[in-house]
Structure formats: structure tokens, C-alpha cells
Amino acid sequence: MNHDDLRLWSKRAADWAHDYHTNLRDRPVRAQTSPGATAAKLPTTPPEQPEDPAQIFADFAAIVPDAMTHWQHPRFFAYFPANASPASMLAEQLANAMAAQCMLWQTSPAATEIEQVMVQWLARALGLADRFSGTIHDSATTCTLSAILTMRDRATGWDSLQDGLSGGPRLRIYASAQTHSSVDKAVRLAGIGQNNLVKVATGPDHGMDPAALDAAILADIAAGHVPAGVVLCLGGTAIGAIDPIDQCIRIAKAHNLTTHVDAAWAGSAMICPEFRDLWAGIDAADSIVFNPHKWLGIQFDCAVQFLADPAPQIRSLGARPDYLQTPDQDEVINFNEWTVPLGRRFRALKIWFTLRAYGLEGLRAMIRNHVAWVAELAETLRAMPDIQIMTEPRLALFTFQYAPAGSDGDALTARLLQMINDDGRLYLTQTTVDGRFVIRMTAGAFDCIREDVMMVATVLRDLIPRL
Ligand SMILES: *Cc1c(COP(=O)(O)O)cnc(C)c1O
């Protein structure tokens, strides 16, 4: 396959993609396949001789789409969305065509400078203070790991960079039980250890209790431990829990602790000024992560980390071996020094295309619609017999249970969820609320319309009698 073939086949791929997207509503959302079924369709050894692109393409069409869960399906209501605007897909095609590795300014000047400007555009779009700069990572997990590595090194006076942690006092990180498992992963990877992640008590609305945070920090200091940082959440993954950002950051600052706010999903909604009360006080954070790939139409992968001051993170993560030196290194940004991997993709291009193609007003309208339709659905379900809304809508997320009087609501709801996902019209997932099994409902696909969201009520009416 050469570049002339590529020209032909990328046009065919574009046609295929158009058909795929325009017919997506007819497909079941979650893959209706079984483990091993796809692998069984592939030869066990690679080909010795070149194969015809037409055959490769035909096999793709025959094997792959039917065995995929369709994340761009308008009725993908599981997990959080990973939505993708057409403009973002186009930008990815162009980034693919150049296949650049953007580790240094010199290896990709336009990518580096567009990244700088896009981080600034996004900070302004979210209403953040001008003090923030930042960078683009692959995922929120990596952003949070980067922030926690920086907390670790700063708390040891940077000694940990040379000496590691062995023999030193325990470092302590604070987060609520509603924060994402990426925080648990980060403390393990950072060598801080799971037992040094203090899960701070939450209030009745599942947000962190600021008084409990203060008490936990004081108790650790009294015990001879070293508090290193606080991770707060805006829109936790299970039920959309929101910590009181302002009060918790004040307490962290009073103890000279670094703060990182995980707004992976809900951050996108902050382009709408009416939601910004949810993160009042955010401008005092040291680090903030949000995933434009979740709800802003800028396709996976794209996680943005805003930093009030990048210098500490560069001190933790940066490295300049001889073979990466460039003559301009003190005048330019070499983004690999801000992130865990050395190599980096040209992710800023899809931000540029998406923000321009829809404008902030277009993206705000999408998010406002999702929030309004999900609220409308919650009211519809609340009025249905035996359905209980277990957590109220936070932005575009709520949870519910099906529990007729005298029944085992957990078991019935689990069975109902399985029936919903086998039915195929919707895809929903579960979590637990105060120990009870609930179905999570969140909408955010780029092509989702009101009828898609309201279809949840239709499917429930169809399936509940068959439970
Ligand atoms: C999705 C999510 C993450 C993890 O995101 P990745 O980009 O997949 O690592 C972290 N925190 C929250 C609140 C999330 O919703």
C-alpha cells in the first residue's frame, strides 16, 4: 500500500464514515458479541505476503463495526460520553496525515504554539483567571498522576527526586471517597501508597466536608506525617459529586498544601456561565484537569491540565538529556517537560477545529440541551410507578432504581439493566449509592437529540413488564 493507494482508500474511508454516522441510530449501542468471537475470525499468524487493500478494507467492514460498542451513538448513556464532533474527526485526519511527534518545540513548532493558544482559549472559555497556563495530556489519569508526583516532590523539598521516599515520613494526600479511582492509582504509582490517601468524610450531598479535611490534616501533622496535597472533585464519576471547592482550597492553602481539581467530565459545562457557581473559588487551585474528550466534542484522547504555575511540575517531570537539547530551549516551551511521556501527539489541532466550527455558543447550546433533557427525563421517570430517583440530576447525570414495594430493588435493577443493554436501543451502566445498586443515566453524545434521551422512558415501559 503506497501513498496513491492511501489517497483512494482514505476517500473510501470518508464515505464509509459518513454512512456509519448517518445510520448509527439503527445499530445496537453496546456491542452484541461474546468474548473471543472477534479473535476467532482472525488468522493466528501474520501474513508473509502483502495483501490487497480492498481485502483488508472488506474484512474491517465485515468484522469490526458489529463487534464495537458505539461511543458516538446518540443513545450512548453509559459511563461518561467520549463525544466527537465532525470537525474534531477532520482535524485528527490531518494530524494523522503528518504523523508528527510533538515532544519539542523544534520537532513541531506549530503544534506547540497552537497547544499554548488552545490552552489559553479553553481557560478563557471556562472563565478561569488569566494566571493559568497548561498543557494537553492523553487522559485525566495522567494529569492527576502528574499533579500528585508534583505534590510528592514539593512536600519533600524536592529531595524525593534524588533520594526517593524510603526512610522518610509518610506523605499524605487527601480526597473524598467520591473522587475517581485515578487518584488511588496515582498515589500507588507515586510511591506514596494507598494507605496514605486519606478519604475525607463527605456531607449529605456527597461533597467533601471541609471541617473533616481540616481535622484530618491536623491529625496527620500531630502524628508526624507530612501532608502533601488535596485532590478535589467537580462531578465525581459515580453520581457527579461536587466538593465545596472554595472552602477546601482555603483550608489546603492555610496548611500550605498543593491543590488539584478533577473536573474531568463536568469541566466542559463550565463554558456555560450559569454553571460556574458549582466551582466557585476555582481560580485559587494549583492544578485543574478537564477532558474536552468527554463532553466538548473534542474527541478522545484530549485531557487538558491547567496550571497556576508550571514550574513545580516541570521540576518533577522535566528532563533534558543531551540528545534532547535544542539551541532555542530557553526561549520556547518543550511540552514533554510538562508531562509523563516524552512523545506526544498533535492534539491541539482538534481543539482549534472544534472551537472554530461550532463556536462557544454552539457548544454551550449542546451542553444546555443535554442538561435540560436529562432533567426532563428524571421528572418523567419520577412519575413512573416504582421508579425512585436515587441521586438528583447534577448537570446531565442522575441515578435511579426500580424497586416495587416488598421487592429486592438491587436485584431487580441489576436485571433490568442487563435487559436494557441486551435490547440495544440504549446503553446504560451502574454504580452504587449508599450500598444500593442503581442505574446511572448521563447524556452527552454530540448527535444526541431530545427524543434519544426520552427513549429511556419508552424502553423502561417496554421492558419492566417483562422483568
Ligand atoms: C473519566 C474520569 C477520569 C478518568 O479519565 P481518563 O481520561 O480516562 O483517565 C477521572 N476523573 C473523573 C471525575 C472522570 O470522570
How would you explain this protein's 3D organization?
This protein is of the alpha/beta class. The chain has a domain at 101-345: Type I PLP-dependent aspartate aminotransferase-like (Major domain) (Aspartate Aminotransferase, domain 2), CATH 3.40.640. Helices cover 40% and strands 13% of the residues. It has 14 helices and eleven strands. The strands form two sheets. Strands 1-7-6-5-4-2-3 form a seven-stranded mixed beta sheet, sandwiched between helices. The protein has a four-stranded antiparallel beta sheet with strand order 8-9-11-10. The longest helix has 35 residues, at 348-382. It is globular and about 60 Å long. It starts with a helix and ends with a helix. Bound molecules: pyridoxal-5'-phosphate (PLP). Pyridoxal-5'-phosphate binds at residues 80, 139-141, 180, 182, 233, 235-237, 262, 264-265, 291, 303.
Based on the model shown, name its key terms.
single chain, 467 residues, 11 strands, 7-stranded mixed beta sheet, 4-stranded antiparallel beta sheet, globular, alpha/beta, Aspartate Aminotransferase, domain 2
